[in-house]
UniProtKB/TrEMBL annotation:
Pfam families, alphabetized: YCII
Organism field: Anseongella ginsenosidimutans
Domain YCII-related: 5-110
Family from the record: Belongs to the YciI family.
Record's protein name: YCII-related domain-containing protein
Superkingdom assignment: Bacteria
Length: 114
């Protein structure tokens, strides 16, 4: 079994859902995570990532306000899970409620251990 990180990307981070829609998505996300945990494959349910309290440090210690200056795409959070293969991790990703948002995506990456 390998571990994979599912990274939730939002095509346009400036769009804000209503509190009611966020509540629905959170319930769906908890159900989705519960299904993965029931298979003993949830390693870390991760966290959401703040859009406001963020900075990017570039080469030469240049600090800019957030990663959103020239692009709209944002990373909204992540989950770490255990899967037998990349294909199984992708199958878990396909069930993410994040994909209900137009333009959203889930990036799946195997975690390398050193």
């Amino acid at each position: 079994m390998d571990e994979f990180m599912l990274i939730f990307r939002h095509e346009d981070g400036s769009k804000v859902a209503s509190p009611e829609q966020i509540q629905v998505w959170m319930e769906q996300t908890m159900d989705w995570l519960g299904g993965i945990a029931a298979q003993n494959k949830l390693v870390n349910q991760g966290n959401g990532l703040s859009f406001d309290a963020s900075r990017v440090v570039k080469h030469g210690n240049v600090v800019i306000n957030g990663p959103f200056g020239d692009i709209k795409e944002t990373i909204g959070g992540y989950v770490i899970l255990r899967a037998a293969s990349l294909e199984e991790a992708v199958d878990f990703a396909k069930g993410s409620p994040v994909l209900q948002g137009e333009g959203n995506s889930v990036e799946v990456r195997k975690i390398l251990r050193h």
